[in-house]
Amino acid sequence: MILSLALFALSFAPQATDATTPPANVQVKLTAEGIGVQIYTCTQKDGAFQWQFQEPQATLFDRTTHQPVGTHSAGPTWTWNDGSAITGTVVQKQPSPNAASIPWLLLSAKPSGDTTGALTGVTMVRRSNTQAGNAPTTGCDAQNVDTIIKVPYQATYTFYEPTH
Fold this sequence. Notes:
Number of strands: 8
Oligomer: single chain
Order of helices and strands: HEEEEEEEE
Shape: globular
Number of domains: 1
Structural class: mainly beta
């Protein structure tokens, strides 16, 4: 009886909130799967060696047709096949539920370039469901300064526009 009461109480315990959940004033416009690499360079700073993030390089795929619809690159920038593009700025970050994966992010977005298309009107981007992509914990030392590595990753990118 006591165990069942304890389990019942736990079922109503507050759940951890997801800091990357977008605000209520936006709605989903597009969702794509990003498959690519996170690029890191071995650097030395103040006598310590570390893998420093440089940029992502990924192809964005339609989740239904599995066809390429765009790219994700430095900036961070997302460019759709129609030429429309946005650049993001991180507003929220939280660790992935999988410690071996890159963090989840919520970014504000603004147009990049003058081309209108699928990404026109997108004001926020969420990176979630990340798989892998973290820099290695070893291998960056005096012999490997300026070495560049590409770590495979996958993530869901959800693009949001203001609610109407």
